[in-house]
Amino acid sequence: MKKLILLAAFILPLTGEAASLNDTTLTYRDKTIIVRDSDERIAIDVRKGDGEKMQKISSTSFVDGQEVEQVYVTSPFIPNSGKRKQNFVGSLPGVYIGVAFPAGNSFGFKGANDMHTIDHRCGEFGISAINFGIPFNYQQTFGLVTAVQLGYGNIQFNKNFKFDNIEDKNEVVPIISDKKLKGSWLKYSYLRIPLLLDWQKKVNGGGRFVVGAGMSVAMRSAIHSRYKDSDGRHSVTKDININTVGLGFDAHVGYAGIQLYFHTDLTPMFNTAKAPKCYNTSLGIGFLM
What we know:
Blueprint: H1 2-11, E1 23-28, E2 31-37, E3 41-50, E4 53-63, E5 66-71, E6 95-103, E7 123-135, E8 142-157, E9 161-166, E10 169-174, E11 181-202, E12 208-229, E13 232-237, E14 245-255, E15 258-265, E16 279-287
Antiparallel strand pairs: 1-2, 2-3, 3-4, 4-5, 6-7, 6-16, 7-8, 8-11, 9-10, 11-12, 12-13, 12-14, 14-15, 15-16
């Protein structure tokens, strides 16, 4: 093969493109062969097209009848001296809103029986304060994305029930009142950090398609439990046995900055020894900012 390259280099110099007076350049498919001839040395470089630049993949020299060959190996773990545009981005939604079912188990979509919730009125919204991605491959299509998300949610109960603290235990109990009852809820906030393995690809040079899944860790804080009647709003309790730290499963899929997201708690929202068992499962829409 090397003899054929040399023969082609010397027979077809007019078909090439000279880099200098003693250089002959040949192009074959996606490879470029450069022959450099001097008084004491003949060098042959083989380069392969790589985006906007040519990457050297092998080199052979003939000096005083001796053959010396070098092979160039690339790896995502070897730093690249050339600058390359960062195409892999943090793809988690900058703003999101959805329903958040207070289910009785992970991946559930039905409220726990002993919580008397109105599932379709339970929801959340949040923002991603920090959002970035780290590519794992040279093509920058696969990698890790993460964000710092600040969220706010509420659990809506049947208007005749309230979330109360009785002897240091949280229970959903009937509201005793002669007034017209209008609503009952529990509000909470969280700081969540998801870590997702993400696949990203620009479609036809236009919008970016993304899909990913992974785990998240959250720090929760319960704000208060309240109900409303014809006389106005009434605070029930701020003493809520919430699990401060929780783990979750997260996934998303989207195109051109619009996404559907899914989250479910893998650990219960409340201390199950002192409160009802509840795992938030949320499903909603997000927008990449």
